[in-house]
Amino acid sequence: MTTTTTATVEADLIRIIGGIDNLPTPPIVMQQIQKVLNDPAASAYDIGSILQEDPAMSARVLKLTNSAYYGLVRTIESVRQAVVIVGLDSIRSLVLSASVFEAFSGKDLDRELQEHFWRHSLAAAFGARLIAHSLTSRQTFDAEAGFSGGLLHDIGKMVITFYMPEPAQDIKQLKIDFPNLPDHELEDRVLGYNHTQIGAVLGERWKLPANLIETIRYHHAPRLTPTKENGLPYLVHTANHLATFTFDYDAEADTYLEPLHEGALEFIGGNEHDLPVLSQRLREEYSRAETFMEMARGGH
Ligand SMILES: [Fe+2]
Ligand SMILES: [Fe+2]
Question: What is the pTM of this model?
Answer without folding.
Answer: 0.91
